[in-house]
Amino acid sequence: MRQRSLIAITAALAAGALTLTACGSRDSGDKGSDSGGTTVVIGVDAPLTGDLSALGLGIKNSVDLAAKTANKKNYVDGVKFEIKALDDQAQPSSGQQNASTLVADKDVLGVVGPLNSSVAESMQKVFDDAKLVQISPANTGPALTQGANWQTKKERQYKSYFRTATTDAIQGPFAAQYVFNDAKKKKVFVIDDKKTYGAGLASTFTAEFKKIGGQVVGTDHIDPDTKDFSAVATKVKNSGADVVYYGGEYPQAGPLSKQIKASGAKIPVVGGDGIYDPTFIKLAGANSAGDLATSVGAPVETLASAKQFVADYKAGGYKEEYAAYGGYSYDAAWAIIEGVKKAVEDNDGKLPDDARAKVTAAVQNVSFDGVTGKVSFDEFGDATNKQLTVYAVENGAWKAVKSGTFTG
Amino acid sequence: MNELPQQLVNGLLLGSMYGLVAIGYTMVYGIVQLINFAHGEIFMIGGFGALTVYLYVLPDGTSMWVALPLMLVGAVIAAVLVAVGAERFAYRPLRTAPRLAPLITAIGLSLALQQAVWAWYPGAKESINFPEIAGGPFEIGSVTIQTGDVFLIVAAPISMAILAYFVMKTRTGRGMQATAQDPDTAKLMGINTDRIIVVAFALGAAFAAVGAVAYGLKYGQVQFRMGFILGLKAFTAAVLGGIGNIYGAMIGGLVLGLAETMATAYIADIPGFDQLGGQSWANVWAFVLLILVLLFRPQGLLGERVADRA
């Protein structure tokens, strides 16, 4: 019988090991020497390794670029900006640890990140208790700013939390209208990954799609840890759907799209900003042509305001692309820089003692022309810029199809 | 349209892959009573071995018909080398230690191998595309079979047949059976048990490597974490089929694959179960099945062929 009890112990250990997969290295930004004046650190929290690192590294590099630009221009007199980037591996538990680490570093006066809404949930309170401003370039979950009952009763959650990205409350319906009115697809199969972001997006999409007359012919929830979606793909094929909406991110969306097409259902997969990444196309393969994604804001490349950013980013010699959230990350970092500038100027050119609270208050009122357009925040901490764009896969790359906003 | 035939094929394909990996768990367990948790990573190393051959050894644009056998060789070599190395340096020194010690070593080795590939294989910090076999899917009646799956359909039964022949008919295979029954007596009969154990690790790794090539062809990508969940599933399949029994591993894999696929496809249609269906619940149902099987047949579907020695 000992062997059987050994198997039981082993199974328990295996379950424990499942939670250990989140281990890994984290790299922090170098701390340069203090060459006179004050050093202000902008924290960055994003997945710098793992499946979502393409997006996370774009965020980190863009914040780095903002800090360097401010230093070069000597934008805030006597203040030198540095970044401190921590890796959250898209795990809420790592995110919370990173939040505590950043709070403990008294030079940190603002944080850009995270990428994932579920990670943000674990960080918000830590930052709010420390009155440390946090600006996410990518979180789209409406509940983060407007509370769990955002559909009926909006309520600001944390005074220290802001975002430069548009929420799913707008993104999902925007996608639904495009799919129904422009792409002329009437029967949808909705799939999500049960995470804060994916499930939220899928539900706002579903609600609007039904409202305007579309039909939901099936739903499924996938397990983000597996790569075998063949059973789901077969269900999609037999449901008679003419389009699939996926709430989730590209590491699953790519293989999912590939397997749906492989099953014989030649129908487009539509997703949110979480699938708007070149890696999606790489994973989904040649049959991904025609797949659609919505993403926040107008395409960075087309904005006059973004030309400088794109040029500077190239000149900066970063190894990775700025990816989907580069412009938003730059603007988020710049909002913090503006906040610091205000706090310093109000205090006769020195950092005030309660710098974190002062910066947070200043960020609420910032208004400047950023990479992605006018940057300012409403009473909930959401971006006032509510632009969205539909992208389609064409010749192996994302191509902007339509920009606009959802007006209800 | 009736989707049952397609779902059965989906389940059998997934199950064949579980089975190929489960053989490694079951053989090593049958002979040294070690649950080799690093086996999932041996599988992963096999995938990267095949990829290395394709990306760095063969010239660009080599036809898959030429490349595939060489990739398979590369996968097997990489997986076997790592498995034999692990046996020699991580498990053999602990052979007389209490059984939990090599188990913990195996878990540590699993994490170490994952992180090593993550850190040192170029581009492995994200999923890497695996080459695909050109050619459209094959339609047989209402069933669609992907080109990449053909490899699995062919390789899994052939591998099983080779394994059965090896274990039953060859001298080394019979030595393995003897060692599984009683290592001390086997040694007295002149069997080099150290060698037999190495052979068990190597064979298990070779089958995992075949499974890894099938994984790459099927999903079009490999990544450093691909072995972890799949390894757990394969271990489950080995227990389901009766750990220690090589046929049980394959049967357990097929049953597990079918159970997951059927749960994804049909549980949600049962009235009152719509919240409990779908792919995210498939694992739950697979484990419900495992518990049921173990309740009524604690030794697994095909029983334990090894003597209970504790």
From TrEMBL, chain A:
Transmembrane segments: none
InterPro entries: Leu-bd, Peripla_BP_I
Domain of life: Bacteria
Name of protein: Branched chain amino acid ABC transporter substrate-binding protein
PANTHER family linked: AMINO ACID BINDING PROTEIN, LEU/ILE/VAL-BINDING ABC TRANSPORTER SUBUNIT
Lineage of the organism: Bacteria, Bacillati, Actinomycetota, Actinomycetes, Kitasatosporales
Domain Leucine-binding protein: 39-396
Signal peptide (from-to): 1-22
Similarity section: Belongs to the leucine-binding protein family.
Keyword match Signal: yes
UniProt KW keywords: Signal
Automatic annotation (TrEMBL), chain B:
Transmembrane intervals: 12-35, 42-58, 64-86, 98-121, 150-168, 196-216, 247-268, 280-296
GO molecular function: L-isoleucine transmembrane transporter activity; L-leucine transmembrane transporter activity; L-phenylalanine transmembrane transporter activity; L-valine transmembrane transporter activity
Annotated Pfam families: BPD_transp_2
CDD domains: TM_PBP1_LivH_like (cd06582)
Signal peptide coordinates: none
Subcellular location: Cell membrane
Membrane topology value: Multi-pass membrane protein
Keywords, ordered alphabetically: Amino-acid transport, Cell inner membrane, Cell membrane, Membrane, Transmembrane, Transmembrane helix, Transport
Biological processes, Gene Ontology terms: D-alanine transmembrane transport; L-alanine transport; L-isoleucine import across plasma membrane
GO CC annotation terms, alphabetical: plasma membrane
InterPro entries tied to this protein: ABC_transp_permease, BCAA_transport_permease
Listed PANTHER family: BRANCHED-CHAIN AMINO ACID TRANSPORT SYSTEM PERMEASE PROTEIN LIVH (PTHR11795), HIGH-AFFINITY BRANCHED-CHAIN AMINO ACID TRANSPORT SYSTEM PERMEASE PROTEIN LIVH (PTHR11795:SF371)
Similarity remark: Belongs to the binding-protein-dependent transport system permease family. LivHM subfamily.
Name listed for the protein in its UniProt record: ABC transporter permease
